[in-house]
Design goal:
Elements: H1 5-39, H2 56-72, E1 76-83, E2 86-93, E3 99-104, H3 114-117, H4 119-123, E4 127-131, H5 150-163, E5 169-175, H6 177-187, E6 195-201, H7 207-217, H8 222-237, E7 256-261, H9 269-278, E8 284-289, H10 302-316
Parallel strand pairs: 3-4, 3-5, 5-6, 6-7, 7-8
Antiparallel strand pairs: 1-2, 2-4
Helix pairs in contact: 1-8, 5-6, 7-8
């Protein structure tokens, strides 16, 4: 069959097609493995309440946060809800105010990460709630869906804080993927009026673009791998990384504060600029930090970080405490 010119040509075509198929299968396998690593909780010891990254700055942040927790543990209530078949867990610090702050951690970070960031809110007159998102800490779940599913849990938590614990208004503060969860809650048709606004630290336009920046850092072929990671993600969760905050932030009607580093290598500065520009109202503010890694801005200049929050709240909400 292959001893004629036509047969040789056919053989070459078959070999080329087989090589292409093997290459595509290899890329899908690598993409699947990456999705399992970064967006899937494969066992209960993954994404626990401990410090997820053993690097000095984050360890220091966790230690400071734990000291805040220990100093305020007398005000803490352990809370539990069920939503869409998942058991979800959180901690509510009741300081006697009639409004609350919900902190939403990023990927890999359970509620313990929030202790470091919520510190200014007690002084500003807010009760504080931190929680384990799906697939984190003590909560059920397997996948991180970039807020597409988790924002439904966030709304349920807000309802509990309002209906049961008497908080008249609820503010959201999210880090990276956590800020995407907050935004999706605020633009949801089911968002109650008392969820009044949000702080977004390190928000990206679409996770697809942010993930490609991660691949660049690790010197991987971003334009070849990213589509296969997204394919695996969509097959597992029904969602796509190609849709993100930039696609629905124009629906936001409530105040938003962007806090962003000019040296963020993942949610690069142009993302913050694009998101800010697409907010369709004037109840918005963008505060730049000249230095600081992604989601590591508060330790760079704690006074300025907390001050930006205080100024934002004073401008758009009831008078905050001095």
């Amino acid at each position: 069959m292959f001893d004629t010119p036509l047969g040789i040509t056919l053989f070459i075509i078959i070999c080329v097609l087989a090589l292409i198929l093997i290459t595509l299968l290899n890329f899908y396998l690598v993409g699947h493995i990456l999705r399992l690593a970064i967006l899937t909780r494969s066992h209960k010891n993954k994404w626990t309440r401990g410090c997820p990254v053993k690097e000095p700055l984050q360890i220091e942040m966790y230690d400071i946060g734990q000291k805040w927790h220990d100093a305020n543990v007398a005000s803490k209530k352990e809370l539990h809800i069920e939503n869409e078949g998942f058991n979800l867990y959180g901690e509510y610090f009741d300081f006697g105010f009639d409004r609350a702050l919900i902190f939403v951690s990023g990927r890999t970070e359970a509620l313990g990460y929030g202790y470091y960031f919520v510190q200014p809110y007690k002084e500003l007159g807010y009760n504080v709630f931190v929680f384990d998102q799906r697939a984190h800490g003590h909560s059920d779940g397997k996948y991180n869906t970039l807020g597409f599913e988790e924002h439904k849990d966030l709304i349920k938590w807000a309802e509990l804080l309002h209906d049961t614990y008497g908080n008249k208004s609820i503010l959201l503060h999210g880090i990276c993927i956590g800020s995407s969860c907050c935004l999706q809650a605020l633009v949801s048709d089911k968002c109650p009026d008392y969820i009044c606004g949000m702080i977004a630290d390190g928000m990206y336009t679409r996770f697809y673009d942010s993930f490609k920046n991660h691949l660049v850092k690790f010197k991987q072929p971003k334009n070849l791998l990213a589509p296969f990671v997204n394919m695996s993600f969509k097959l597992a969760t029904g969602h796509t990384m190609r849709i993100g905050n930039i696609d629905f932030i124009d629906k936001l009607t409530k105040p938003i504060l962007f806090i962003h580093s000019k040296k963020d290598k993942y949610s690069v500065p142009s993302m913050a600029e694009a998101l800010y520009a697409k907010v369709s109202h004037d109840k918005k503010k963008l505060v730049w930090f000249e230095d600081g890694a992604h989601s590591r801005l508060r330790p760079v200049d704690t006074e300025r970080y907390d001050g930006a929050i205080k100024e934002f709240l004073a401008e758009h909400f009831e008078e905050v405490k001095a």
